[in-house]
Structure formats: structure tokens, C-alpha cells
Amino acid sequence: MSFDIGKNIHLTIFGQSHSKAIGAVIEGLPAGFRIDMRALKAFMARRAPGQKGTTARKEADRPIILSGLVDGITCGSPLAMMIENTDARSKDYEQFRAVPRPMHADYPAFVKYGGFNDIAGGGHFSGRLTAPLCFAGGVCLQYLGQKGIEIKAKLASAGGVSGKKMQECLEEARKSGDSVGGIVECCITGVPAGVGDSGFDSLESSLARILFSIPGVKGVDFGAGFASAAMKGSAHNDAWCFDEKGNVKTKSNNHGGILGGLSTGMPITFRVAFKPTPSIALPQESVDLKSGKSTMLEIKGRHDPCIAVRAVPCVEAAAALVLCDYML
Ligand SMILES: Cc1cc2nc3c(=O)[nH]c(=O)nc-3n(C[C@H](O)[C@H](O)[C@H](O)COP(=O)(O)O)c2cc1C
Questions:
Q1: Model-level pTM?
Q2: Which of 275, 295, 277 is nearest to 286 (CA)?
């Protein structure tokens, strides 16, 4: 999986959930940039499995740098890293080759790759591939931090509830063998006005493109988003004003910090909707591709009761890659 983030950064993510390793190659980072590995590992740990309310799979997600860094400083050559997969239980997955999981990628992947796709752990469709994404985005977050740009995301709701009720809801989903969806809210501050582009490379297009590449993402909206469709212009319009330093601002932020694909200098705000985890322990209807008959499927193994919990740093990482590309 490889894509140009925009004009400057090219990111390749490789590996499968249960292959020997997963990793990333990042091209386009400036030379002479010192990476704070401790901070980067702490950032990646927020995504790692094994935390409360997430899958029981235990992976340290320790990044091993292969090239591109000399004494902790980028040298201009592509930054390549890998993470070993150590806690894989592939036998849990073999049945999904013939009996695809509802709502997972097993069936379309079977068709696209003629049955040769790696089914173990979801292959390269696994949420595990967001670990190298977090590495790449974590590096970009540090670069942006030096320029006064901060990206902070949080879990705003899970299973339709927010605040203290979320933990209860997650626990209930786990206990009953079910899963829930969630919404991650993100806010980017410190971006000066005029960053972005019009048309296909608009800031919104670029952010949405990479956010939708995170497995499980089903919706992205900016500022007032879908709610703006029910508003009047007089209520939705953000009035321009000067702040105490004479900078142009808006009094409200329904536009979410982006107009015409360009940043306005206001915080860039967006929300990302994650669907409930497809793999649930409850019996579900599926088909047997070998016998051509309908069948029931019972999924064993270790799964996240709510993808959105571990996806919070993935959203920050994705946004950082896009912003970094524009800022370089
Ligand atoms: C951090 C993270 C963890 C995930 N964990 C699981 C999991 O434990 N079980 C599962 O079935 N799907 C999990 N997913 C979601 C699937 O990878 C995803 O739903 C699947 O690949 C289909 O892609 P789509 O939902 O984008 O269409 C996870 C996704 C992320 C981002």
C-alpha cells in the first residue's frame, strides 16, 4: 500500500497482520530533523493493542529503524522502519477463507486476489497496519510541533454515548460478545491562513482521502458538517472579526477552519465516524463459498470491542501526514 500524501511526502506501508513484520518507508522528509524516539514510542503506544477495553493481542509495537536516520537525525534517504509481529494466532482465521466474516474485507479480498489473499489476522486489511501509519504520522507530528502546529484527537462517543457512560458501554459490548462504533473528534491548531489548495487537492479532500484509508472509517465531516445541512445561512455563517492582536478570525467556527480548500487560521475541526468492529463473538449469518450454501459463523479469537478507541492516534497521524506535506 503506497500513496503520495500530496506533493512532498510519499508513504509506503507494507506487511500483513501475521507476516513476520509490518513497516513503513517514508520519502520526502527534510534532512537534519532530529526524531525524539521516546515521544514517538509513547505516541505509538496509544494505538497498541492490550490496553483496557481493547483486543487481548499483546504487541509491543517496537519500531526498528532500518535506514534514513543517523544518530537520531534524518539524513535525506527514505526513512524505513519495521515492527515485528510477535503475538499472532493464525489458526483463529483459517475458516474465514471459505466463510467470510460479515462486514470485514474477507469476501471482496477473496475475489480480488483469487483466494490467494493472506487471511490470517485480516491480512493487509487489518487495523494492525495502522501501527506504521502512526510511526509515519508521529514523525510528522514532531515536525509540525516545531512549527507551532498541534493536532489533538479524542474519543467523543462510543456506542452512541459519551463521557463516563462510554466505559460501561464498551465493557457491556465486550461481555456480550458484541461491538460498538464510535466518533473521534480532532482539532488542529496553529495552522496559518492560506495553507492548502483548491480543487482536488483541497485541504478537506486531502484529509478525507487519508482518513478514509483507516480501516473502519465510515464518515468524516468538517466543522458543523452534516448538521449544517439543516441550518440557515444566518446561523451557519461565521462572522469575520479581528482579535486583540489584529489577526483576522471568525466569531464562530462552523466552517471548521477551512474555506475553499484553504485554512483560514481558525482551528481545523473534523469528526471521524468508525463503524462497530466487524468481528463479534455472537453467531452470524454468512455463506460457505466451497459448498455454495448459507451457513452460520461463530468467530473466535481476540478483537477490539470498539475500533475507535485505538484509532484516536491513527486520526492524529493521518492528519499530521497531510499537514506536514502542505507545510514542507
Ligand atoms: C486500530 C484498529 C483496530 C481494529 N481491530 C479490529 C478487530 O479487532 N477486529 C475486526 O474485525 N476489525 C478490526 N478493525 C477494522 C477492520 O480492519 C476493518 O473493518 C476491515 O478491514 C474492513 O475495512 P472497512 O471497515 O474500512 O471497510 C480495526 C481497525 C482499526 C483501525
A1: 0.95
A2: 295
